[in-house]
Amino acid sequence: INVFYQPLERIAAVIENYPKGIAGFRRYQEFLTTEPEIIDRPGAVAAPAFKGAVAFEGVRFGYDPARPVLDGVSLSVRAGETVAFVGPSGAGKTTLLSLLPRFYEVDQGRITIDGHDIRDLTLASLRQQIGIVQQDVFLFAGTLRDNIAYGRLDATEDEILEAAHRARLDGLLADCPDGLDTVVGERGVKLSGGQKQRVAIARIFLKNPPILILDEATSALDTETERAIQASLQELARGRTSLIIAHRLATIRDADRIVVINGGGIAAEGAHESLIRAGGLYQRLHEAQDLALPNRTTA
Ligand code: ATP
């Protein structure tokens, strides 16, 4: 690796390790200064390559342990399964998924991947195998190439282009005279929200992790962008364990399973049709078109 990459790599490591996932994937700045540091346990081992079976076993967690947000959550996800998480705003969907990369530590119970308690694994080897696509995508000042390759710093040009292609970035690359060397950010080309999201998707294609966490965007993008992003996200989810905080009916319908989070735990789970038939919260959320919207007033 080029020496110039080293500071970048270090910054990338910090961002990678503390994405906004922390506080509903939103406040990593604050996190850096206020949250207790999560570090490797003595004797932690590097994770083997995951197949991607994830199990939450009697998980209890509260930002203030005296007031649990989640309590008694048990859920087994098969390797390669796509699970859509829905539920009212503030129910704890983001919180639950932020426990998997260990942005927070469970207060009780445990989380395993392929049977390994995630606390027994090194953070780096755990997080290396989990890709996260958030609503607010963070790009750093630099070229498109840097921003994509940050998913895997040793990637070749061909691999970067392939990832860009799979993330439907060809149009953007064609429009930019400098292609992958186009500088983005403050001093460069300003990208739209949809374009930034596609850069983030390209990163994950390149990184190719067995587990994907996706916080689906709630903000409306224009229909064409929306379709392009949906298509690449679907491709991204294929062949990986995908845990999606779902806001789109299409995503929810395509999921192998839907998990309804409410009241600190799993209120219901199953396929779309069976949950509708069962009535209850899912059906009401569905009717209200309010499946997981964090903010009704702006939705
Ligand atoms: P939304 O759909 O609105 O994103 P959600 O189901 O993802 O909601 P969470 O963001 O996980 O819900 O929030 C669950 C609860 O935990 C809420 O009461 C929220 O206010 C609280 N919470 C979230 N992040 C933090 C934090 N960093 N510190 C303290 N409380 C938090």
How would you summarize what this structure contains?
The protein has 299 residues and is an alpha/beta fold. The chain is 35% helix and 20% strand.
Any overview of this molecule?
It comes from Skermanella cutis. GO terms for molecular function: ATP binding. This is ABC transporter ATP-binding protein. The structure is a single chain. The chain is an alpha/beta fold. Helix content is 35%, strand content 20%. It has twelve helices and twelve strands. The protein starts with a helix and ends in a 12-residue tail after the last helix. The model is unreliable at 1-34 and 293-299 (pLDDT under 50). Bound molecules: adenosine-5'-triphosphate (ATP). The site of adenosine-5'-triphosphate has 14 residues, from α3.
